[in-house]
UniProtKB/TrEMBL annotation:
UniProt cross-references to Gene3D superfamilies, sorted A to Z: 14-3-3 domain (1.20.190.20)
Domain of life (superkingdom): Eukaryota
Protein name: 14-3-3 protein
UniProt source species: Trichomonas vaginalis (strain ATCC PRA-98 / G3)
InterPro entries per UniProt: 14-3-3, 14-3-3_dom_sf, 14-3-3_domain
Residues the UniProt record annotates as site (Interaction with phosphoserine on interacting protein): R64, R137
Record-level GO cellular component terms: cytoplasm
Amino acid sequence: MFSDFLAKAEIIDVRKFAFDLCDANLFEYARNCLMRLCENDNELTIEDVNAISRICKGKMDEYRKAWKSIYLTEQKERGKGRDDRSTPLLDYRKSIESNISNFSKEIIDMIQKSLINRTTDTSIRGLLYRMIGDYWRYLAEIQRGYERRESTSKANAAYQEAEDLIVACCGPAAAIRLSLMLNMAIFRFEIYSEPDEALKIAQKAYNEGIASVDSLHDEQYMDSILLLQMLHRTIVSWQQNK
């Protein structure tokens, strides 16, 4: 089995190996690398967290893309009264929702039980809480009623914890801080349906980031510029759709 090979193999850079597997759409194999990163007792590094985040997000993005496509098609067919077409789509959507739910809860549980106590670094803890917020948000996207309210509340609490930690240790142009603000703005826009508040969060992050981005070192500059561009595109899109 691949997991047995991984346990015995002398792979110097597990993170790079996992990225290569993800790029080859071999997520289940990359997942074994993920577990290896999570199960050791070493101090968690920013590189570890970025690797774990990338591996998890790659799979979740596949689930979310499939869910949105099926959901829109299902609603279209139902609107035309084509129950013979919408019913099979409903069954397929429920299956994808089960995958999203199980995977999200697995990641949240992994962070809370295996990762959060492996570091005292403020920025890394902030990143982990941001991830918790993200996966509760992904759950809220597919839920209704009480379950949606509960996931929304937990996402909000995690994002607030992440903000307290990251703002305390990272300047306004830091990529970690910009990515958090972008995710929090999207959370307000899509889950709370508060476009004005979402725009306020995104605009504030963009303005503060632009004002201080030139103070960053070269290796930090490009990541921050890319996130500032994403924030700007998001702001323009929301303003045009108001």
